[in-house]
Design brief:
With 298 residues, the chain is mostly helical. The chain is built from 13 helices and two strands. The protein has helices at 2-17, 21-43, 47-55, 62-71, 81-95, 98-111, 116-133, 140-154, 162-180, 186-201, 211-235, 240-257, 268-289; strands spanning 205-207, 261-263.
Length: 298
Amino acid sequence: MNFVYILIYIVLISHTIRFSVIDFLIGFCSQLHSACVEAASDHVRSFESLQALVCGKNFSDPAQSNLLIASGLIHLFVVSASHLMILRKIILYLLCNKVATFSLLFLYCGICNFNPPIMRSFIALLILAVIEKINLKWKTENLVLVSGLICLILSPAWINSLSLQMSWIAALTLSVIGYFFAKANSFLKNSIFYFQYLATFNFIGIPQPASIGVSTLFTKFLEYVLFPLALAVFLFPFLGSIFDFLIVSLNMILSKLELTVIFRPYDSEKMIFINWVLIIALHLFLNYFTRKPVTCLN
């Protein structure tokens, strides 16, 4: 706990100084992100989906992004924890070396422009590897807390980042599921994420409850088929036709379902404040009502 207090103190200092390590890293690695985005455009017709899945680039087509938001699948097209963990498994399997694996994962963070969700996930994975190496036992929410605080130290401006908050809340939601609903089916777990969405995105817009079923059906496919395939397209361009077919088919299915989300104007400052209140409340709840040490990031 003393370590957490020290991190909070450093966060306050870094917020006062306003020096951002992340801004320096982005400037240093910006060409990696640009190269990834340009390469994606050369390989497939559905290049925006490929850029989002692999390069961490936001959709410029509002129709595409709204379709994914309404279906509850947008988080699977934003490079974050699940993508990084899958990539970690692939690299570790191929190289069997943790130092090389984390070096390549850090390089991939650079390719994704060091966006807040992927950096929080990378830091969490790195801390997890260290505490496993020295046989320490941490509760999952403490791992989430420390990785989030380190993100705020590396980039003080991220205190106003909705994407960091959403990543943080999603990780805490996974902790709640792991403690209390570990044996539940996928539909119930996705329902919990839906209600988490209501709490955090209520000021922006609410997707239809039917998005719970859509997430249940397509989550595993997007994580374990489409994302690895998207990575493979960069090495084997001939796979681009398969990727295009899957994206077109997915968009067609989602369009047929006619899912909608009603967007409304919102006060970003108020939303950011409420999200921080929710994050603190979840940490307090998990700290006082759970005792299980961390065993994995999920």
